[in-house]
Amino acid sequence: MIRLAFYVAIALVIGIFAFWLAAHPGLVVVEAFGLEIRTSAAASLVLLLLLTFALAFSWRGLAWFIELPGQLRKTRAQSRRDKGYDALEMAVIAAASGDAQGAVKNAERVKMLLDRPALSGLLAARAAEAAGDIAGAERQYQNLLEDKRTALAARRGLVRAALERRDYHAAIVEAMAAFDAEPNAKWAFDALFDAQVAARDWTGAVASLSRGEKRGHIVQLAAKRRRAVLLAAESSQAEANGDMEEARRLAEKAVVAAPGFAPGAALAARLLVSAGKGWRAAGLLEDAWAAKPHPALALAYRDLKEDERDKTRAKRLRGFADLNATHRESLILIAETALDEDDAETARTTFAPLLETEIRPSSRLCTLMSKVERAAGNKREANAWLTRSLSAPSEPDWSDLDPEGPAFGYRDEDWARLVYSYGDAGELIHPRHERFERIPLDPGQALFLQAPEEEKEEEEKEESKTETLAQDTVDEADTTEPEENTKEAVLDVVEPPAPKRPRKPRAPRKKPLPQTAKVEKPKAEAVPSPDLDVAGFPRQPDDPGPLPEDEKEEDNIQSRKREVH
Q1: Spatial contact of 261 and 228, defined as CB atoms under 8 Å apart
Q2: What angle is formed at CA 2 by the lines to CA 13 and CA 14, rounded to 5 degrees?
Q3: Predicted TM-score of the model (pTM)
């Protein structure tokens, strides 16, 4: 509508102009080159307009002809550019879809079609990485180092390539150069720290961690935990090299960084005890227990003093547990201390809250309860708890510590994994458990299982022994004469002892066992199986035989029977 109004307006202007010319007739005379041309004013204006348009079109045509070669070059360049962008698009799609050959092929086309060295170089390097050509990718990244715009991206690619071929020292060099050039690059900090941990460069990792913490690349809590692990690993390395003073200094710094880090506290306590600073070791262990109790800390605290009476040690351990009295490990420590003092009732009372709060007691608690029942003389209940431990859930962490060996047998690779597991999540790793290493069995923990039939037979034997002993005691009282009668007369005939009263058979008592695993009666003598491992203890044979106390009691009964008869 607007366009139509515009055309109408132009026509109207032209009409008015024509009407004005018609209303003002005139004569135009042109003399040139001996010629004289006479015409009306209207005709002269029309001829002038036509001549102007002709000259304009002629000039435009001449300019087009002059610019034709340049236009052809631009056309070819545009076509080349379009093809290059198409190849770039296909290369990116191929790389994203895992088509390494297609990515390399299209990357070569991009390099030929587009005059963008940075773009084509980066694309060629990524295509080489997709194809698994690490050496080719490194060549491309080395070429990109000359351009300031792509230098940081090139170093990142070189770090990635170095880590791919496990050249951690080369990765450290490139990542450190990138971190120095751009301290705000979080990827540079992560790459540098990871490479230093992988190369076991604990000192360099601590320095990089401090720089990253200042730049805000890692949260403060994770930084403290990681620093504690790194310092403990560095301390262990110094101890292996024989530098005990440096090892103690680093271990104490690890405890300061994270008091709840049990491996660091145990390591520092051991080194301080070897240096004759038991009081300092006790303080570190107490601080660590108050922050986060751990079974290894209790073992280390128990062994601080070797020449100590049992009662004094038990009192010291109970005070140690009171530093965090409501914690699960504190209750277990109190119960174990009571067991060492042969106080089975206190141990059972201490374990009661744990058994009530846990829906399914762990194998560790079941094993400890079996020791409690064994100490109380309840052999049947002890075997029932040990049977229950076969199907009970295992401890999630440190239920099978070796009291006679190192609590934390960490190697370099274990320290490296612990940097992230404890530093980021606050969880300790159990390398012996992960490597399926077995721990020497403590003879005091060798509790045996019995089949139900064998338990019934043992009960009948015990009852038979009790009744026989009672009967023999009665017979001995009847056949014994006063001392005066024996002095006055000697009997020529010895009367036989009174016959024993027949023993009435008693039905065996049926008492339900709190066991979840079915124990079959073995046909032959059971042999411990090395394939079954429950809570760190190999499976034991079913029939342990008589205990040493039972053997002594039976021998005494037999000797008394011989004296009577």
Answers
A1: yes
A2: 10
A3: 0.64
The closest of 411, 430, 432 to 422, measured between CA atoms, is 430
What letters, b where the CB count within 10 A reaches 16 and e where it falls short, cover 525-534? Answer: ebeeeeeeeb
Contact residues for 282 (Cβ-Cβ < 8 A; gap 6+): 269, 301, 304
CA–CA distance, 293 with 286 (Å, rounded to integer): 9
Taking every pair of Cα atoms in the chain, the longest distance, rounded to a whole number of angstroms, is 199
- Enter the tokens of residue 355: 């058994």
| pLDDT tens digit sequence for 90-128 | 877 887 777 777 777 787 788 778 777 787 788 888 888
Q: Which residues pair with 210 in a beta bridge?
A: none
As a whole number of angstroms, the distance between CA 50 and CA 42 comes to 13
DSSP-derived pairing of the beta strands 537-538 and 533-534: antiparallel
**Which DSSP helix (H) or strand (E) runs through 126?**
helix 117-130
Q: Which among 516, 428, 35, 510 is positioned nearest to 232, based on CA atoms? A: 428
Q: Can you state the angle between helices 100-113 and 41-97, rounded to 10 degrees?
A: 150
Confirm if 213 and 220 have CB atoms less than 8 A apart: yes
CA–CA dist 372, 339 (Å, integer): 7
